[in-house]
């Protein structure tokens, strides 16, 4: 499902001295079945941007196209369920949305709200608990008895169970250990390979370099840059203004560049880096 | 959620903002008390004039006060209707079954309406111009004499300021959880009454869980910074009683005197 923003502006609480601008004239396209990463400082408008895709927020002006659906300032709150079924959203610290007495019921909550029959929802729960890397034994347990990391996985299963076409992830790995973080990120990459569109908000530049195909940089409510991670991480202007930082491989390459190594463009992943080093040491 | 004006601070600066919060707090309650002294059109008009004057010098836009009325609208309407239709009278203008409308009833209903406006405006003025922390500081200061009877004044004040601090936190948390459940297909405010009540379960449970965990974290953070109890603690924010506060008290006394005089005016 292609998503398109056309001159979208959003201001919080108009007619109030406490109002603030959330988005200023954002236009962009998010390709179908792509893995798009959105980066930017805290308060730069990343979360505001993605909340427009499933109409949790509506634009103050401009419009958003999600597949055939168009969201404008006049869109009313009724009949948004089909849209929200198509666009799943994993919030920051999604474990705080758990409430049922068993894990199974909690995972089934989303699908049942979207009108999926009980039996199919149960099947989805059994399937998704394994997808997120937990065994089926967990289904009968209370979500509140689990560890933080397990709760996070259950919450993610709860979003995936509705089988959304687009999955929005708002810092899904914040506070997880390195192994857990890699497992979760690999899980989303796998979802993309199964034909889902993934939109990831993150502060982790290595995740962007390793997983994303397109990268968007937000700053002060505006979209400052869009491109492949490779191009963006080689954009000296963005780096000088500290809107982005470099992934570890690129930092390492910069240090090597001071010791007689030459890089045409900075390698951003470990694989690219090792390939470059191999080539330069063994030479042609 | 954000529409609740009563009980919300609005940053600003004017004479009213600079008044000592203890004085403002006590005067607000005193004023609510003397509202009940008014008994005729002139005295109500006088109090209205005073309240509008106070709103004017506070430099807060009047629209905030009108918005503050909104959540109370049904209560006000209900009370006014009750007074208008159920005041017994020998000369009803209009009569139907047990309902009757009379001149006396309408006058009393009008007075009740003005009374609501006065009380809501003056208390909105207090909360708009006084930070919650100033209010809890002033409550602590006002309750101080109760220490004599071993009343735990500083603990109560701490509880109060923590509770006030939690309000915006819990509002944010509620909005966050509501968004998360909306994204999972919950429709708030749709369907019948039972369905609507049911749709609050997915908000309330996570909200309880997270408030307990926030409270627990807060307790640990306070203990690790050496908090024992409030006894003998020094203050970071010191309240100053100044000349303008004295003047305000004099004004209030003058208003009371004028009001007592106007009461007997026919």
TrEMBL record, chain A:
Keyword Transferase: no
Origin superkingdom: Bacteria
Cellular compartment(s): Cell membrane
Single Gene Ontology MF annotation: ATP binding
Domain ABC transporter stretches: 3-245
Keywords: ATP-binding, Cell membrane, Membrane, Nucleotide-binding, Translocase, Transport
Known role: ATP-binding (A) component of a common energy-coupling factor (ECF) ABC-transporter complex.
NCBIfam families: ECF_ATPase_2, PRK13634.1
Subunit relationships: Forms a stable energy-coupling factor (ECF) transporter complex composed of 2 membrane-embedded substrate-binding proteins (S component), 2 ATP-binding proteins (A component) and 2 transmembrane proteins (T component).
Similarity comment: family membership: Belongs to the ABC transporter superfamily. Energy-coupling factor EcfA family.
Record protein name field: Energy-coupling factor transporter ATP-binding protein EcfA2
Organism: Companilactobacillus mishanensis
UniProtKB/TrEMBL annotation, chain B:
InterPro entries registered for this protein in UniProt: ABC/ECF_trnsptr_transmembrane, EcfT
Location of this chain's protein in the cell: Cell membrane
Pfam families: CbiQ
Transmembrane annotation, as ranges: 27-57, 69-86, 106-128, 200-219, 247-265
Family matches, as CDD domains: EcfT
Keyword tags: Cell membrane, Membrane, Transmembrane, Transmembrane helix, Transport
UniProt entry tagged with the keyword Transmembrane: yes
Main location: membrane
Topology term for the membrane: Multi-pass membrane protein
Keyword Transport: yes
HAMAP family attached to this UniProt entry: EcfT
Stored PANTHER family: PROTEIN ABCI12, CHLOROPLASTIC
Role summary: Transmembrane (T) component of an energy-coupling factor (ECF) ABC-transporter complex. Unlike classic ABC transporters this ECF transporter provides the energy necessary to transport a number of different substrates.
Subunit and interaction comment: Forms a stable energy-coupling factor (ECF) transporter complex composed of 2 membrane-embedded substrate-binding proteins (S component), 2 ATP-binding proteins (A component) and 2 transmembrane proteins (T component).
Similarity remark: Belongs to the energy-coupling factor EcfT family.
Protein name in the entry: Energy-coupling factor transporter transmembrane protein EcfT
Organism, as annotated: Companilactobacillus mishanensis
